[in-house]
Structures are given as structure tokens and as C-alpha cells.
């Protein structure tokens, strides 16, 4: 205990604080520079970080970002599915309301002109009977629509519609059939 505890320490410039606890006194030290630099540096970093983080996300909520990511994943899934289209996949698509509804839209805006709104044919063939000239297996139907029939009114729709829409419209055609066996198989009109 110093005799004069409140007197500033002349040598170091450090002041003793007034309070005492159990005979212990506290100095009022100036905070060291390295400590202050760390504190103000952290504050400055937080402000700059905050600014750039929100700048780069302006108008983009987390939900929108998530949805964008989901779409990328869905697109990748769809591409993967389209890349391995087989009878099974196409047949499954024809039992899926969403695909069939999308296919109906395409059919009733393009294909109906030749195949009729009821798919029973006109300029083009009947698509709901059990007779397939170019094959009634789902993949065969897909290929007919995708590649067309050279020298006839049935053009190749692949380049115009793209694989997704072709698959959908084929699903719509197949949805009128009770099985994908084709040619004299179980393709009864609904
Ligand atoms: C301009 C008229 C026309 C349009 C539009 C058209 N088709 Fe055709 N389609 C035909 C003709 C004609 C044939 C028969 C080809 C032949 O002589 O072999 C045919 C054949 C087909 C066949 C083969 C049927 C079988 O018995 O094998 C399928 C499947 C088919 N079309 C689906 C479609 C779909 C799906 C669309 C719409 C994306 C479409 N067509 C649009 C004229 C058309």
C-alpha cells in the first residue's frame, strides 16, 4: 500500500483508481496500441464486410437464391433423366399428371392440326388406336416425334421442341394407352 494511493505515478503516467477491494487497488492503464488496433480493425472489417455482403445480395433473398439453386438441380436431374430415356421412364412419365398436362399443352397447340384434338387422326395418323406404323414402344414413339418421318408431313420435332417437350408430348400420347407394348399389344384407346 502506498502512502498516497491517489497520486498519479509521475514516472509511468499511470493513475491509481480510487476504489479499493480487500486492500487491492487498480491502475487506470492506457490501453496498449496493439489492442486498440485489433479492436478498431475488427470494427472496420465488420463494416466493410457487411457492406459488401449486402451489396452483392441486393434484391436477392435467401428464398430466391435457394429456388435458383433448386432449379439448377432440377434441370440437371431432368437432363440426366432425358439422357437415359427408356421405355420405362417414358411410360412412368405418361402416368405423371404434370408431364401429361405439359404435353397436352404442346399437343393441343401444334400436333392437333394433323392428328386431331382427340388424337384420332386426320392428315396424320390416329395416335390412340393399337396400330403403330412406326412402332408403339414408348422409345419408338419418342423417336418418331423427335426425328419425324422423312418425306411426310410429320416433321422432326426434336430441334423445334427440345427433348423435354418431346418427352412430355409423348407422355401425353401414351397417357391415352393402357400399356406401352404397341403394335397389337394392349394399346386400347381410352
Ligand atoms: C403437318 C402435320 C403433322 C403435324 C403438325 C404433326 N404430325 Fe405427327 N404425323 C403426321 C403424318 C402425316 C404422320 C404419318 C407419317 C407416315 O406417313 O409414316 C404422322 C405420324 C406421327 C406418329 C407415328 C404414328 C404411328 O402410327 O407410328 C406420331 C407418334 C406422331 N405423328 C406424333 C406427332 C406429335 C406428337 C406431333 C406434335 C409435336 C405431331 N405428330 C405433329 C403429320 C403431322
TrEMBL record:
Entry keywords, A to Z: Heme, Iron, Membrane, Metal-binding, Transmembrane, Transmembrane helix
Organism, as annotated: Puniceicoccus vermicola
Taxonomic lineage: Bacteria, Pseudomonadati, Verrucomicrobiota, Opitutia, Puniceicoccales
Residue spans crossing the bilayer: 34-52
InterPro entries named among the record's database cross-references: CcoP_N (IPR032858), CcoP_N_sf (IPR038414), Cyt_c-like_dom (IPR009056), Cyt_c-like_dom_sf (IPR036909), Cytochrome_c_Oxidase_Subunit (IPR050597)
Source domain of life: Bacteria
PROSITE patterns per the UniProt record, alphabetical: CYTC
Stretches assigned to the Cytochrome c domain: 98-177
Protein's recorded name: C-type cytochrome
A single MF term (Gene Ontology): electron transfer activity
Amino acid at each position: 500500500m502506498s502512502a498516497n494511493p491517489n497520486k498519479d505515478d509521475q514516472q509511468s503516467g499511470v493513475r491509481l483508481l480510487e476504489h479499493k477491494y480487500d486492500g487491492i487497488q487498480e491502475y487506470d492503464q492506457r490501453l496498449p496500441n496493439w489492442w486498440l488496433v485489433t479492436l478498431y480493425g475488427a470494427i472496420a472489417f465488420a463494416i466493410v464486410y457487411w457492406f459488401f455482403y449486402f451489396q452483392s445480395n441486393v434484391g436477392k433473398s435467401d428464398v430466391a437464391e435457394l429456388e435458383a439453386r433448386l432449379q439448377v438441380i432440377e434441370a440437371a436431374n431432368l437432363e440426366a433423366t432425358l439422357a437415359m430415356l427408356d421405355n420405362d421412364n417414358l411410360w412412368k412419365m405418361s402416368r405423371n399428371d404434370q408431364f401429361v398436362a405439359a404435353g397436352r399443352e404442346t399437343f393441343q397447340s401444334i400436333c392437333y392440326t394433323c392428328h386431331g384434338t382427340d388424337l384420332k387422326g386426320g392428315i396424320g395418323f390416329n395416335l390412340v388406336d393399337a396400330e403403330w406404323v412406326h412402332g408403339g414402344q414408348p422409345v419408338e414413339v419418342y423417336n418418331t416425334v423427335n426425328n419425324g418421318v422423312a418425306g411426310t408431313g410429320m416433321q422432326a420435332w426434336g430441334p423445334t421442341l427440345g427433348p423435354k417437350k418431346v418427352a412430355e408430348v409423348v407422355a401425353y400420347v401414351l397417357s391415352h394407352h393402357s400399356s406401352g407394348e404397341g403394335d397389337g399389344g394392349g394399346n386400347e384407346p381410352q
